[in-house]
Design brief:
With 248 residues, this protein is α/β, with parallel strands linked by helices. It has a single domain, classed as Rossmann fold, CATH 3.40.50. It has 9 helices and 7 strands; from the N terminus they run βαβαβαβαβααβαααβ. A 7-stranded parallel β-sheet has the order 3-2-1-4-5-6-7, with helices on both faces. It is globular. The two termini are 35 Å apart.
Amino acid sequence: MTGKKVLIVGASKGIGRGIAMGFAKEKTNIVGIARSEDLLKEVKQEALNKGAVSFEYEVSDIINGDCKSLAQMLLDKYGLFDVIVHNVGTSLCGNNHLGSSEDWIAALRTNALASIDMNSVFLPPMIERGSGHVIHISSISAVMQRGNPLYASSKTFLNAYVTTVGRMLAPTGVVMCSVMPGAVAFEGSYWDKFIKEGHPRVQDFLRHHQAANRFGTPEEIANAVVFMASDMASFMQATNIPVDGANM
């Protein structure tokens, strides 16, 4: 993948940072987007140290901004990307299962619609070129339907989008897929503080929900993403791929 142009939306920490390092090792040209410039500067230096040909970044709030205008600016500034990774969303959206449609739409916006808005700008020139890889970071919650109902439902919608639109894109040479992480632990993650506290809920969760009996790492998610961005995944259109430690 040497020299490929890769856009990572949500590149500053956790899974996004792991994905940036995965592409850095492949000697790609990376453009990262996140809300924190300080964190992006750290990621840039680390990525260059690990082999990235270049690392540029843009500071932007994807969830609350105009994603279509941002996507157009990125195309105008950097040109057409070979790979786009949408690492956007959070389970810490609203969780009131009796909430109004506004609550559900907000969760949908965070976990799916912002990325779809960007795709509406990025995909047409990819189709015209006849190549490209668009990878969404979904969640195993979309399959297990457990936990926050708003989060699980919005990621289920995202998976349906990937499947249906990915099929339409398949004959064009553009590969769309999603990677569905299970529980991943890293500095500052949801599970991080419980692990450091030795909280009993950690072992309880692992025993009941993780057949692998451990949390995943950002690097393990990144490995799947980098593979799906490569030509080795050329026959894996419209797939939603679990990387979840055999979640149960």
